[in-house]
User: Fold this.
Amino acid sequence: MAENRSLLQVLNGKTVTPPPLWLMRQAGRYLPEYRETRRTAGSFLDLCYSPDHAVEVTLQPIRRYGFDAAILFSDILVIPDALGRNVRFEEGEGPRLDPLASEEIGKLDGSGMLDHLAPVFETVRRLRRALPAETTLLGFCGAPWTIATYMIAGRGTPDQAPARLFAYREPVAFAKLLDLIADLSADYLVAQLEAGADAVQIFDSWAGVLGEDEFAAYATGPVRRIVQSVRSRRPDAKIIAFAKGAGLQLKGYRQATGADAIGLDWTVPLSFAAELQKDGPIQGNLDPLRVVAGGTALTEGIDRILDRLGNGPLIFNLGHGITPQADPDVVGRLVERVRSFGR
Ligand code: CP3
Assistant:
């Protein structure tokens, strides 16, 4: 059955026509049915930790569009939540956490993480049973650098300055924090795979602010640590690594991390994407704002990607998460357009 999952075929290096398709943040506020469930579920974390609700919102975009992959509904910040960092999501403001001080790093205790996240694994088990056989189920986690930026600043910041400064001033403590997050993330991904996830994606959403040495130490290294740890227990684990904004540093990133495929944001030139694709599968990279704009901005954006990258191993996706402003009908047109490639 898993052999019929087109996204897994691409992760194994095959070219599938039309390419498998899913959208980052495909379960979310652009869907009225999501907003309805969100309204009744309590807090955002209540939604993540309620298997009934989390299964429902994961399935919503699959019912509507028949995407080739479903992504577990959860959040990357459940790891700091499991570490007791008082994670909350305030309406219209994004995530808030207790900012982490250097002295606290040695005291972080991840021993209760798998118990704390048990509802997430229950969600994965139920999803695998509920999904169509041909739909790939993706688990995920945040990359250590991206998680650390939120833990240190206590919130999202435009340039991740608090974490960058912390790393320059306290490199030893910072390395320790990244190792801890990487080891917990590996255990978290293994548990998702054991519960029934077919593949996992590691989101390094803030990789783009790092200089060369810092990218190697804080982005590539910790993601490689996760990949190696997961594969030591699940040698066949399929992994997508998405380092947003990494630009030229994506050269060699797939090989250096050991990921099966790399995600590309919309700023990656298609000529460079084609070069990366010669070495292995890629995922991306439509600008999410083309979905908001619709019309020719949408169709031209889709066609450029398909013409340039559709004849190699490609997972069609956006270059970052879909925005709440997207019109669900326009998403339907995107799906139709991608599915008509090669017909
Ligand atoms: O559909 C899916 O992709 C699955 C679920 C998912 C969510 N967050 C749900 C969510 C996934 C894979 C994530 C990953 C995530 N979370 C990332 C990495 C990907 C990226 O977008 O860069 C990051 C950085 C986070 C942290 C986070 N969670 C932020 C910054 C925010 C607030 C911004 C926002 O969009 O509101 C969240 C909240 C969040 N996570 C929402 C959803 C659907 C919106 C909250 C709500 O419904 O009120």
